[in-house]
Amino acid sequence: MASSLSTRMALSVVLAGVAASRAPVLAQALEVPALSVKARVEQRVGITDFSVDYSSPAVRGRKIWGGLVPYDQLWRTGANASTKLASSRDFTFGDTKVPAGTYALLTIPGASSWTVILNSKTDLNGTSGYEDKSDVARVTVKPEAGGRRERLTFLFSDTTDDASRLDLEWESLRVSVPLKVDTQSQVRAGMEKSLADAWRPHYTAGRYLYDSGGDLDNALQYLDASIAIKGTWWNHWYRAQVLAKKGRATDAIAAAGKAQELGKGDSVFEQFFKEDVQKAVDGWKKGKA
Q: In the CATH hierarchy, which top-level class contains the domain 197-288?
């Protein structure tokens, strides 16, 4: 009887321990609304993508400006992790040109004017660790009256192909910073790159036909079209191989020579193709002899 009682008591202790160990796990599974909710806003301006990631605190009956958010002091401009502005391309923030990238967005609110700051350190804990030497842009703007907002909100407004405004709205106040992008220059650069790479589709078609044992005449046509747009060691080398397979050794040697000429200084050619091209040329020459 005593032994049975001891066994039951030991089992109770074990079960109690298991229950205690599981309690935190069960508690972790319970979700409740955050006081400052995560938020994100995105906007494409021309061909540039902007986004703002932030945590959005609520007014909750508090005095915000000059109270919860003191005047003339650096503010993380949100809650929790640092607020981040990201741009996929170079842009102008206020009047300052800024490279594409992700930046911490901080402010120094004032009763009559605000300083809005972009800083390259995005892992700030609030304002701790902030250094003004890491600022990439600063702009001074005047706050305006805005519609009532319970939660801090970022939004983009007045967006065109070349510009937008990044607005901060909270309580009954709005602060706005102009953003500009040189869309025409960006598009022109894209055009030039696309045209510079226009040789690739024909080259890819010719290479595929050669590698897959397809129609060599069509492969040669595609490679010739590629070379007409822009001669590279890639398309000349495949042209050489097609010509050799068609029994045109002299033409193949000439095409390979052009590939060798264009491949000089190219790391891919020098490291992976240079020896193979030379071996092929030597073999074609021996076949002619």
A: mainly alpha
